[in-house]
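From the pipeline queue, job 12 of 40. The input is one protein chain; the requested action is below.

Action: predict structure.
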Amino acid sequence: MQLKNIKPPTFHPADSIVASTAGGFLCHSIQGMCRDVKAHQPKQPPKLGGNRAALFVYATVGLENMAFIANAISLVTYFYGYMNFSLTKSATTLTNFMGTTFLLSLFGGFISDTYLSRFKTCILFGSIEVVGYAVLTAQAHFPQLRPVPCQGVPPTEMNQCESANSTQVGILFAGLYLVALGNSGVKAALPSLGADQFDERDPKEAASLSSFFNWLLFSITSGAIFGVTFLVWISTNQGWDWSLGVCTIAVLVAFLFLSMGKPVYRNNVPKGSPILRILQVFVAAIRNRRLSVPETTEELHEIHDKEAGIGSEILSRTDQFKFLDRAAIVRSADDESRLRTPGPWNMCTVTQVEETKILVRMLPIILSTIFMNTCLAQLQTFTIQQSTTMDRNLLGFQVPGPSIPVIPLMFMSISIPLYDRVFVPIARKFTGIPTGIRHLQRIGVGLVLSIISMAVAGIIETHRKSVAVKHNMVDSAGPLPISVFWLGFQYAIFGMADMFTLVGLLEFFYAESSSGMKSLSTAISWCSMAFGYYTSSVMIELVNKVSGGWLGSNNLNRDKLNYFYWLLSGLSTVNFGVYLLCSSWYRYKKVEAKKADTCSSDPEGKIEMGRV
């Protein structure tokens, strides 16, 4: 074929005009259709949740805990040196404050799940916390609101110091417990708000959810490091009014920053009182106690498909606590006609029954972790007092006693990224579990480490007292010739224990709870710490009475604190045995997520949550 004989087509001017006109009309029409399509096309909403939203939570947690943990560590010295409380009263006042803070988180969780969203709960309770810090700042600033500080006085003459009057004590407790109330609501709602930004039913986001709790602890640790160094230095060198003032500003900024992230949050909708739903199950089960429990789940009451709502969580029936299954028995027409008040108090759904079973199964787990937090309370009270009797010199710099916890905090800040980025991926390859190891296994590792920490604490205290005797400084108010960094051993081990147990508990309770009680379950996990602090106060009083005064004087060099540490180690060993029984008995929940739409990535609608 010869191309040279092919003539190019010829165009007349008229053809060009027609072509141009047609092309212009066609282009104009296409552009018009495009504009018309764009005009009718709905705007895509901005992507909500994910790591971008979680960043606001991390920052808020860091700033808020910078203030809270710094005071949790050092307030015992404020009570002892500025409010002129005795050593024992200083320790019990702090542990009672900490215990109340964590216990009140149940109230915050109830408010969050029942009436307010998690975001609104954080803002409301955060405002209360700011007011509490402002009250404490005012008392520390104005001398007439507190007694004359009794500092530099030998321990044997502390009873000669001026005691705080009732008004001064009242102002102190008002500020403390406003902080406790505000912080409790934040503790219940803020971790759940952050976890809500990841969908645990999405395999990709499930792994991110596991990392979230690790990085949440990293944020807490980072804020705490800054608090126990910078804020403690301020309180020691510039005064408590400056330190508490910085705390007030930091917490205020934290919740202003949390508010900035509101447009990108996935916000939960309160689903009514979880406590009321649980009570309904018990009442219905008692009313139906004479009925036999059906063998098949299909004979029990459940709401499926569109009735349950898109994305609703439906829990599968388990074989434990079968008595509660009576609450979901479907009565015959004759039985229903005899009921004067038919409704949720007579018949509940299987999901509602399983929600109640989950809470009942969780109780032994939470009870068996309380004693570890009793040990933690000692590191925030007696160990801080130990540090004030030791040489705190570091390269010419005098390290404040309450700053010693920076040792485990630094250790944790290094360990958490290694755990999340190295250990979890490796473990995940072997176990197939998104979290690497199961939640209950992680908690168990922490309990073992807490036993070791208390045993080491007893050995270090024995050595410290031997130094006091050797240098004839048993009744001296001056520092002993032994470095304060000896306390770093017990702190470092317990820091690792906290990394395993605290995150394990938070993740366990969030993952295992139903969608309608996430905040309340998070609050339950904090209650382990609450009862741990209360148990510490009881233990101190009980040990003093039974032992004849192991911790009875204001002089640690004469007390038997080392015996007390070893007693805690022994009791922790017994507690660990109880935990092993409880964890082996526990049954993980099973979720059947049925959606109203047909475009589900899980066509069979069943997601197995067991052993995660």
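Job complete. Residues 203-237 form the longest helix (35 residues).
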